[in-house]
Amino acid sequence: MTNKEKANFEIFEQIASITGEDDAFKICQMFAGEQILFPKSIIRLKRNYDIRKEYRAGKTYRELSIKYNLTTRQIRIICNPSKLDLPGQLDLFEAL
Q1: Taking the domains of the chain in order of start, what are their residue ranges?
Q2: How far apart are CA 14 and CA 9, in angstroms?
Q3: CA-based nearest residue to 74, from 44, 32, 39
């Protein structure tokens, strides 16, 4: 097995550890030959969505800052009412 094959198999194993082997194989079939880039901004958007959701459910800025390892100021900025529920704005993670 070449180094490239070993590296590809390691990536497959990582995906399989999260999704299960059958779904990992389906992902490989779907994206065979493609290079996939996962932008970090998606992770931040999902985190901010979760923070807003928990804030609306009653969590305090302090509780959220501890949970997400952010300052209370950063949490306040994320939960700023002017950034919540903008008319006509679709939520990227509402379907999750």
Answers
A1: 1-36, 40-83
A2: 9
A3: 44
Report which of 38, 68, 41 is spatially closest to residue 53, judged by C-alpha positions. 68
Query: What number of other Cβ atoms are within 10 A of residue 8's Cβ?
Result: 13
Tokens of 93: 């993670």
- In tens digits, what is the pLDDT along the chain, a chain of 96 residues? 788 888 888 888 999 999 999 999 999 899 888 888 888 888 899 999 999 999 999 999 999 999 999 999 999 999 986 655 555 566 666 555
Q: What is the pTM of this model?
A: 0.59
